[in-house]
UniProtKB/TrEMBL annotation:
Binding positions for N(1)-(5-phospho-beta-D-ribosyl)glycinamide per the UniProt entry: 12-14
SUPFAM superfamilies xref list: Formyltransferase
Role noted for this protein: Catalyzes the transfer of a formyl group from 10-formyltetrahydrofolate to 5-phospho-ribosyl-glycinamide (GAR), producing 5-phospho-ribosyl-N-formylglycinamide (FGAR) and tetrahydrofolate.
Record lineage: Bacteria, Bacillati, Bacillota, Clostridia, Lachnospirales
Annotated site, Raises pKa of active site His, chain positions: 151
Domain (Formyl transferase N-terminal) ranges: 3-188
The species this protein was found in: Anaerobutyricum hallii
InterPro entries: Formyl_transf_N (IPR002376), Formyl_transf_N_sf (IPR036477), GART (IPR004607)
Name under which the protein is recorded: Phosphoribosylglycinamide formyltransferase
Length: 208
């Protein structure tokens, strides 16, 4: 049984997609053990409570130093025997101590086809603003493992989404969530839970 922690800063639409997939059987062999947020007002915490999963508020602002927060986050994951950390709109930099402890066991969803429109400062609507400004005809979403870079870890899954004439960043964001993010993030968790994802350096292979 894969024990999962989902880290979220906002509303938690990707979290909801994970919870719904677990309920429907699209994600198997998995327990969503805890949802952690740095934001007291994050609706994701309510989603977790409604599902019956532990909702944990853990904010850097509550600690005197960032190092104290980093250690507390690591302790929270280890105390719950977490196997996989899922970043689903988490706007806190994951500390090196967590990345080291959970090498190739932290995944992130990014709303573009990496390596396009990613890296420092590329999150939320900024990604879609940049894509539209560049005039791309196809965008999408990427699930990747997290390393110490920004959006530089091995790519696990990608799904393209067509950009349509007249799109605004908000409209494109919604289409990418509906057509890509809410599908490939739960699918990736299910593949990992069932031992079908393998990492060799920067290349990921998936058993059919």
């Amino acid at each position: 049984m894969l024990k999962v922690a989902v880290l979220v800063s906002g509303g938690g639409t990707n979290l909801q997609a994970i919870l719904d997939a677990a309920d429907s059987g699209k994600i198997t062999n998995t327990e969503i053990r805890v949802v952690i947020s740095n934001n007291e007002g994050a609706y994701a915490l309510e989603r977790a409570k409604n599902y019956g999963t532990e909702a944990l508020l853990l904010s850097p602002k509550s600690f005197e130093t960032r190092e104290e927060f980093n250690q507390k986050l690591l302790e929270a994951l280890k105390e719950r025997d977490i196997d996989l950390v899922v970043l689903a709109g988490y706007l806190v930099v994951v500390p090196p101590c967590v990345i080291k402890e959970y090498e190739n066991r932290i995944i992130n969803i990014h709303p573009s086809l990496i390596p396009s429109f990613c890296g420092k400062g590329c999150y939320g609507l900024h990604v879609h603003e940049k894509a539209l400004a560049r005039g791309v005809k196809v965008s999408g979403a990427t699930v990747h493992f997290v390393d110490e870079g920004t959006d530089t870890g091995p790519i696990i899954m990608q799904k393209p989404v067509m950009v349509e004439q007249g799109d605004t960043p908000e409209v494109l964001q919604r289409r990418i969530m509906e057509q890509a993010e809410w599908n490939i993030l739960p699918e990736t968790i299910n593949l990992i839970a069932n031992g079908k994802v393998h990492v060799d350096g920067r290349v990921v292979t998936i058993d059919k």
